[in-house]
Queue: 2 jobs
Job 1
Amino acid sequence: MSAASLFQARGLVKRFGGLLATDHVDLAVEKGEIHALIGPNGAGKSTLVNLISGLLPLDGGSLSLDGVELTGLAPHQRVRAGLSRCFQVTSVFGHDTVLDNLLLAAQAHAGSSFRFLSRRSAEKELMDTALALAETVDLAGALHRIAGTLPHGAQRKLDVALALAARPRLLLLDEPMAGMGPEDSLQMVALIEKLRAQTAILLIEHDMDAVFQLADRVSVLDYGRVLASGDVDYIKGHPEVQAVYLGTDTET
Ligand SMILES: Nc1ncnc2c1ncn2[C@@H]1O[C@H](COP(=O)(O)OP(=O)(O)OP(=O)(O)O)[C@@H](O)[C@H]1O
């Protein structure tokens, strides 16, 4: 962790009764970095992501993004500060079209400059934003489809687009490949690789091929603490990581 890290988590603690689910975790994500978080089932990955996004209150420690203290902020305030997340369960509005989903998300994050635009200019700007998001996630050909009728892979891409509407500086992706077949997984890997240019990413994922392909750095959680953190070669060669995770079944 350097003083200039984009995102810093220091000494995070979460207890559930007697269980220490997050055990003094330090984690840093640098600008432009894809940082993967891996670990066996029950290691504390979801708990950590919920602490970072503000869905769970901390029992100890602090968080900052780009020098702004996030500790104690509500989830929507963290989004405004530049931290956006995708969920394991998709947050798409299933009965609306892809375009309406994107327009709603664009509007939600439009910001105060919109107050000074005419209605027509504001609508054009929202439409431009929505179309650009669709282009980014390769859904420009599905704008008028009802979101809930899209195949699973396309819904996950739409979910990513909704998170991108907030223009995050750090994007949390919680198992983006979950439930996907090989073709959709390849497309999601290509999308995440492309997003590297616009936001840093904290990626929680069980698909080790995807993790090793994408990650600049990998942190391994075990029993709520960081067992190891380093580049892919370091993690692949780490004896304890081999023992607790890579050498065993990595499927959920
Ligand atoms: N709300 C809760 N109340 C009590 N215990 C919890 C709660 N949430 C999680 N735990 C426990 O905390 C530990 C960490 O769980 P967590 O879901 O964060 O792990 P995980 O690494 O995300 O697992 P998975 O890969 O299965 O999603 C587990 O022992 C789990 O049973």
Job 2
Amino acid sequence: MSVSAGKQKVGPSRPDLQGRSVALVGLMGAGKTTIGRKLAQVLQLPFVDSDAEIERISRMTISDLFAAYGEPEFRALEARVVARIAEDGPKVIGTGGGAYMNAATRQVLREHAVTIWLKADLDLLMDRVSKRPTRPLLQAPDPRQVMQDLIDKRYPVYAQADLVVQSRNAKRETIAMEIVAALEKYCAQKDSE
Ligand SMILES: Nc1ncnc2c1ncn2[C@@H]1O[C@H](COP(=O)(O)OP(=O)(O)OP(=O)(O)O)[C@@H](O)[C@H]1O
Ligand SMILES: O=C(O)C1=C[C@@H](O)[C@@H](O)[C@H](O)C1
Ligand SMILES: [Mg+2]
């Protein structure tokens, strides 16, 4: 069976995920939500975004949750939501940027998903996130420095993901198909172990 993203037809087969989900991790602006949605179409799986799910359940925006309850409460809620999403059958999961920093969340994702780190450089991230003021951590006097600090702190942890795909200003379909190719290789190798 061949898979296609939009008009582009690429790749001979769909990865055999053996019931696992695919979870995208990485920093704010890397494209987890945007690419995740496209990837879900290609893999014919449901797409769930943990930030959107948190907003739906709480009926509050992420910014309002941070303001009303503080970051630690948000993180606790996020860990519960990601676990529930991951345990609930195969899908593509777009995680919030900080979700993978939680050790219990990493464990849940190890058990239920193939994790992909969408890696991006500072300029790309800043270009992307500067368009909308929806990310509370970046409502700071020097958001670029905040992002650099997050890169320093988080990249060694994101590096624990099963696969790394470089995010860049390429078509969403192109990045999604790179992920499919990486998944095919990864799953084929796992199956032969
Ligand atoms: N390949 C791409 N080409 C052009 N724009 C893109 C691409 N991928 C994402 N974007 C844009 O970059 C912005 C950030 O993307 P997105 O919201 O998917 O990031 P995210 O990783 O989910 O961030 P967060 O952790 O804050 O949820 C969005 O405006 C999106 O439209
Ligand atoms: O990187 C982060 O810590 C965050 C990323 C977003 O997805 C949201 O989950 C929130 O703005 C926090
Ligand atoms: Mg997102």
